[in-house]
Amino acid sequence: MLTCALALMVLAVILAWPLPIVLAAAAWPATAPGLALALWQSIALAGGVSMIGSLLVFGLIPFGPTPLLALGALAGHVAAGTLPAGATLTGVMALCLALILAAHLLLNLGATFVRAERQRRRHHTLIALLSEPMPFDETGTRVIDHAAPVAYCLPGATRSATVLSRGLLRLLDADQLRGVVAHERAHLRQQHHLVLLAFKSWHSALPWFPIANRAETAVALLVEMLADDQARQVVDDRTLATAIALVGTAPIDGAGASSTRAGGSAPGYGDGISTGGAPSGAAATGHALGGFGVDGLGDRRRIESPADWSAELVAPRVRRLLGQGRVLPPLGRGAVVVATAGLILLPAVLLVSA
Which residues of the chain register pLDDT less than 70? Predict the structure, then answer.
């Protein structure tokens, strides 16, 4: 079992440091955002299982020859209040750390879900009070009276909404607006807020872990690209790219607009998934389109300036829509699929074969 514990530890280190750095710096995810998103999810899942599994298996070594038998023996010793021969303080500490880490991650995930749902309900109430239906629209789109160009979707268990600002309606033409609305509805349809919530939970559980922040940022961009791909079925690429660029680089008028564009929220509209310039605040329980950004989970992260926001979520998407960058070949796509499946299966295989 020591070999299994060491192998899981090595795998956890690889998944926690070099592999995420390489993936975040790669160019190919822009050409296959769905595959890249699946790979990020497999890295996060396999990394957590490997990290906890390595500690657990190491601590179980004195209890039995295999993890399953050792777990049964551990239960018996806990009930009897005894320790087996060969048990050490290091092993007991490893078991305790594995239990604490697993509980911390799961409880933090649950707390993040509850907090996000509470914020979304509050936001739905505010939107019902402070917005009005979009004229000649039967899909539930709401309009808020705000100068900044903002668009976001607000998911919910029983009701969802797409919210636009008057500043956005003044800025974009009819085709560009159709692209924006299609983008936001894609977020709702594909349940992107759940993906973002999982990575936000990982980041908030391990705020000192730089890779968690890197993963959250990369995933936010990928879900924007996935929504862009849905919007491309409604409008042409250049129209959508123009809309993204216009919203992402729109001049800021007034303190309220400045707050939204720089990552705050429009007055009274915190907690959405924003595409109007705010990766938080207005994006806390939905998706915001500030060039169409996403962060729907109560994240209070701040982008220092509109230029930073544009560089992070706008420019890569505009370049992609304008056809810049190479397409991932079929062989590369197959390799990503195999890697994704392999990462999910490898920790389980190591544990079973121990």
Answer: 251-311
Return the domain boundaries, the chain: 1-87+328-354, 118-323
Residue type, position 339, single letter: A
Per-residue 3-state assignment (H helix, E strand, C coil) for 132-173? EECCCCCCCEEEECCCCCCEEEECCCCCCEEEEEHHHHHHCC
- What average pLDDT does the structure give for the chain? 85
Note the helical H segments in 262-329: 306-309, 315-321
pLDDT of residue 189: 95
Within 10 angstroms of residue 191's Cβ, the number of other Cβ atoms is: 12
CA angle 51, 36, 276 (to 5 degrees): 110
Closest CA to 117 of 164, 152, 159: 159
Number of helices (H), then strands (E), belonging to the chain: the values are 14, 7
State the pTM of this model: 0.86
